[in-house]
Amino acid sequence: MKNIIKQMTLKRKIFSLIAVAVFFIISFQTVSYLSIQNVIENRAKDYSQSTIFQTKTAVEQTLDKVENRTQKFAYNTYLIDFLKADTIEEKIKVHPYVENVINNLLENNTEFRAAALVKENNWRNFYGDLDYFIYQKVVNDLGEKFNNLTRGQFEIIEHKGEIIHFYLYPIFDLHSSSNENNKLGTAVIRIDSNNINKSIRDSSANQYTTFFIADENDRFITSSLKSNLIDNSKAFENYNRNSEYIVQNERIKFANWRIYGFTSRNKVAEDLKQFPLMIIFSSLTFVILLLGIGFILNQNITKPVIKIAKSMDLIGENKANQRINLDINGELGIIVEDANNMLKKIENLKKHEIEMQTQIYETKISRHKAELSALQSQINPHFLYNTLECMRSIGAVYESQEIMNISTAMADIFRYSIKSNRFVKVKEEIEIIESYLRIMKLRFPERIDYEIDIKKQIKNKKIIKMLLQPIVENAFYHGLESKTDGGKIVIKAEIKDKNIIFLISDNGKGIKEEKLNLLNNSLNRVLKIEIEDFKKHGIGILNINKRIKLNYGEEYGLKLDSKIDQGTEVEIIIPVEK
């Protein structure tokens, strides 16, 4: 596939890219359409479920109020006495109180519209908006179920094109000691349907969903539709049978009713019916636009590039004096001009090539001569070592302990420096540092002191030779040499996160902030540093940092921290073993 693309002409690549772009645009828009439809449908379902729950809660609160207040009403003392009365005189005596209790119930509770008290022997009293015909229909529709009630029950009847809601509650003599049936009668409460209808019609339903409430036998009770009873009942049956709707429902406590939400898939799709046309229109627009871009690219880029390529083919190795003679404007014209300038430069470079090679050769010869001269001028370290041994012997003859100590320490340092090993143990490096510091103490007995704190497990670890001693020497000459007394160098080491961290600090004059920043910056880029920077900031510390990074990796090295008149601390981080 890669080779096929490489072999394609620029023109074919452009038009292939346009075809791929069109395909992806159409695919993306199609997937977007399906995704949007799915999102809207899911949101409609979620919103519908939320509305169902809100409506269910509102209806349950209404029914709960009815149930609680009916129970309080049913066991009113006057009401019990009224139902237990056997004679007319007893009933007449209690009746005003009963009538007052019932009137208070109807007037103070908007959920109640009418009430009736019924005894087993068909004796009944009506209060409010409840006539005999409605009562009789309730009794007839329920049959024996009415007389055998043992607990409160919500019921509905259809009367003159209207759904009427009732709550039937049996009243018992709770103080009777008889084992026989102690039922005194039944409270028939007509509920104001407007409260239940309002709960569902006030729901903030979306445009895709219709809500219904039905009883346990799927008999229609109310809905969010503003239609008559017959139309609503038919609508509920049609919605229930139609697979076009997404059906959700919740049970309503207290009444064995269910609230249904029917979300129409067709309505969801209807809102998006313009989307496919938009996809086709936008796709055609993109095709025309991309073809137009392709034509412009072909005329203004592809053809001129082909002409330039053919002109470049005519320029061979022995024809560097030829030029590209094409009249092209714009960026490609600049390319032609730059190419001609490049050819001119190539021609000039070829003329100077021999001169440059000669200069390079002569420079190399000069550098080799300089290096040879420098080598010849070096002092043989073995000669220095032998000379120091001679000095120590003279000191012993003349019993000069200072000369013996200095020459012994210097001999140790020179012997250590000419060792061929690249790596040494930490304890060997520390011994050389102690030799150096002994010399400095002999030279400046009152001005310098030192402290070395190296953990035992670190002493046998290997490090680069002469890693720490030059830094200690720097600390003395750049930090403590100007102090008349109280100078101190502290050397510490610890292992942390598989690294050895050396800390070499002094209490000398410190480094100015500007110079400290320059030093740390040079340390960070030491692998790319120019020789001028080595001379500017001191070869020693930069050289050590470069050796660390070359041996251990760029993540290791030195870091300086210093404060004026407080001292300087050098942190050296290397791996434990590498």
* Radius of gyration, whole Å: 53 Å
CATH third-level topology of one domain: Beta-Lactamase
**Poorly predicted segments:** 370-383
| Overall average pLDDT | 77
What separation lies between the terminal Cα atoms?
45 Å
What's the CATH first level of one domain? Answer: Alpha Beta
Strand percentage? 15-25%
Global structural class: alpha+beta
How would you describe this structure to a colleague?
Among the domains are: 8-272, PAS domain (Beta-Lactamase, 2-Layer Sandwich), CATH 3.30.450; 451-575, Heat Shock Protein 90, CATH 3.30.565.10. Helix content is 58%, strand content 19%. The chain contains 19 helices and 16 strands. The protein has helices at residues 2-7, 10-74, 77-84, 88-108, 132-142, 144-147, 193-201, 229-241, 265-270, 274-314, 330-377, 381-397, 401-417, 426-443, 456-459, 469-480, 513-524, 531-537, 539-552; strands spanning 112-118, 124-128, 153-159, 162-172, 183-191, 209-214, 220-223, 245-252, 257-264, 423-425, 448-454, 462-464, 487-496, 499-506, 557-563, 567-575. The strands form four sheets. It has a five-stranded antiparallel beta sheet with strand order 2-1-5-4-3, sandwiched between helices. Strands 11-13-14-16-15 form a five-stranded mixed beta sheet. The protein has a four-stranded antiparallel beta sheet with strand order 7-6-9-8, sandwiched between helices. A hairpin with a 5-residue loop joins strand 6 (209-214) and strand 7. The longest helix is centred in the N-terminal third of the chain and has 65 residues, at 10-74. The two termini are 45 Å apart. The relative contact order is 0.06.
